[in-house]
């Protein structure tokens, strides 16, 4: 009888522990940014990391090192139309996105290699790189986000915001 009671207690504790872990949100939850340009879909799938008291440029996303522009799996761009991202021509298709942050200016990187975790950076697979523009931020943002803003017809801005950083690049459907 004592063993049966002990086994029942162990099963209940396991179920309670499993249930409470299952309800915890992931540390860097998945997110999506969508826009329609000239009637065609452009989607970015990424995972959104948190600052957790760290500083961009030193403790997290070190300046001078290529970053997967998110967390966990690589950030993916899926476009149904040819795009002009900054100075870069991007044919319709699927790509992996990276950035190269610095104190002065970030570079937006489009990689032809897809399906990787996001690290290590797949050197030699760049479709190309283009400079990003920095915008002042009023308040620090805990959660990293990617968004399409100021969309009009065939044009939009792709913003990467995190902490006191708002880096963006103009995108136009071709």
Structural class: mainly beta
Give the SSE order as H and E letters.
HEEEEEEEEEEEEEE
Number of strands: 14
**Helix content range of the residues, please?**
10-25%
Radius of gyration, whole Å: 20 Å
**Low-confidence spans:** 6-20
Shape: globular
First-to-last CA distance: 75 Å
Tally of individual domains: 1
The major beta sheet can be summarized as: 6 strands, antiparallel
Mean pLDDT: 89
* Share of residues in strands: over 45%
Structure commentary:
With 174 residues, the protein is mostly beta strands. The chain has one domain (27-173). The protein has one helix and 14 strands. The model is unreliable at 6-20 (pLDDT under 50).
Question: How is this fold's topology laid out?
Answer:
Blueprint: H1 2-22, E1 30-37, E2 40-47, E3 56-57, E4 60-62, E5 75-79, E6 83-85, E7 88-90, E8 93-100, E9 107-111, E10 126-131, E11 133-134, E12 141-152, E13 155-163, E14 165-173
Parallel strand pairs: 3-4
Antiparallel strand pairs: 1-2, 2-5, 5-8, 6-7, 6-14, 8-9, 9-10, 11-14, 12-13, 13-14
Give a summary of the structure in a few sentences.
By secondary structure, this protein is mainly beta. Helices cover 12% and strands 48% of the residues. It has one domain.
Salient structural properties:
174 residues, mainly beta, 14 strands
